[in-house]
Design brief:
The protein is mostly beta strands. It is 14% helix and 39% strand.
Length: 674
Amino acid sequence: MWKRFVRSRRGSVLTLVAMSMLAIMGVAAFAVDLGGAFVARSQDQRLADLAAYAGAITYQSTQTMTAVDSAVARIATLNGLSSDAITASLVSSPTGDGNSAVEATVATTSPLYLGGVLTGGSSMAVGAAAFAEIRTGTPGCITALQASGTGISVTGGTSITANGCAVASNGTVPGENTSVYVHCGARITTLAVDYASAAAPVQSGCTDILPPSGTASVTFSQTVSVDKLASNTEVTAATSRISVVSAIASPAAPVVTGGSALNFGYYPTTMSSPPLPAGCTASLSHSVWNVSCPESGTFTFGPMALGGGLALNLGSGDSEVERTFNFAGDINGSSGSAINLGAANYNIAGGIVASGSMVITFSNGGTFNIGTTSSCSGGSGYSICLTGSSRLNIPGPGTFTLTGGIYQGASGMPSVAALTLGSGSSGNSFVIGASSAGYSLNNANGAAILGDANDDGSAFTMAGGIATSGGTCVALGAAAEHDINGSVNAAGGIDLGAGVYTINGYASFGASDGGDVSNCPTSGTVTGLTATGVSLILSGASTTSCNGYAGSAFCLGAGYAHVQLTAPSTSSAVGSNTAGLAVIGPTSSSLTGSADFTTGATDTQITGVFYFPYGAINVSGGAQLQDAGDPEGAACLELIGAEINLSGGGVLGSTCVGLPGSLSNSGSGVALVQ
């Protein structure tokens, strides 16, 4: 019994040993085969890297995938593979930086030796892939794009300072055969100069292109700078709105029928003729007419005027009521002292007119549909007309639909502005038509303040342009989109609320006169142009003369010594989709309006991208253009124009960092990225 037991156990052990040996041999076989596969995989990866790199270089020079396929096939055959063992395709770079890349894929097999006995197979599939990014030159922070343009010219005691980035030019300075020209006495301070001309930059016999302090030398690179914004989605989205803005027309005037003309004069005690709307009553007390109407319903009046020395209260003690006041003509404050109007929605077939010392005050916001008046000394086609020392105040939130423009010729300045619409609210809407002269806002005197329109459903549209006179003050509230079908021609202080301003024309500040204004828009503030969180999108469909520069699409001059324009950030509170874009000029090659900074523009600070791809940028007459000088680079001014010219003591500076042109690791060339 015992012997049989021992023999049985010996047989089991032998069986286990035999089975274990088989497993061990299998693992060893796979280890050998897997090692061979790893070697093959490494070889494939080297081939993929080589093919991707060669393919990217080939595509960069030929711009055709046919040539890439041929180059990749040659690499395959030279390495003992079939010509189709390596394939290539043009894809977006996996880095996500917007560049293209050539992806090369190698597909081979590794033979199975011992492992094949167990699996029945003869080979194992291996392979590898690689991406080589095709990198174009990164523009510097000051770039003259146009190859047919006059490049960058710095003369007459001027200077460009770009300590953290490059100065780049594709054009040719007339008579100098070079892309960059610096006259003796002028200066460029920069890390690098990129030039596309055959000849190196000319320094007119002087050494006037200098490195920043602490940098040994300037790097000069012969290279073509690309327009990185040519297909930028933010730019194309912003400029595509121009076609919408150019179609804006004036809204129709409200139609009001019925009502009798009302001339509130010196009646004994009550007003019996002409009649008031049914339900309304009037009484005269101490030179004040008091008109009372029910808090609900529709009440139609004729044209309304007020006698000299009198005041009128029309429902002025009422608030939060549900009623409509219709006027078949003007609310005319050409005489009298005050008109106080209570809560209602207003349909005024004529306009609102005030002169002398008249003060017209609405106690509440609401809906204001206003036609045009024939009684405006400032011109025809205006919905609101103020002159003398009159005032008009309509608080917000208000929905303002004006058939014509606004003529603000009254003298009131902050803190008691001549005109305030929608004050104290973010929920206003402005749809303003154009006067016969083409103005939606003509601010000839005093101050005009328009409230914010940045709530959902709000609008800010003008069917005409904006004109302001010297010494005046205009403040426009924030709005996601400010649509202006006309030009902005300012000579006084102007404060632009946050948002995008799409202007179908030009933007001019001090083209020939005017300049900074004190106590604008608040007491103690000096304003030339203040615009925080703002993008100006200019069609350039019309241009102006800017202190001697004809054909200007953007002008800063005269006495505009306090200018601060800061582009929206990525977290813009008003939903801007143009983060980082400060000013975008015409993006059509047929529109070549220039951007001009001239005499008087002695402290212009612009943060963001200033982009004029088809227009010259000129800085002259002691003008100074720079960013806010943030040492961290957050206040970066990136100036991109067709050509850039400095003369007559002009100063241009940028504190951008990380845009060093050809010095960048992401400069022109090819790099394996994955």
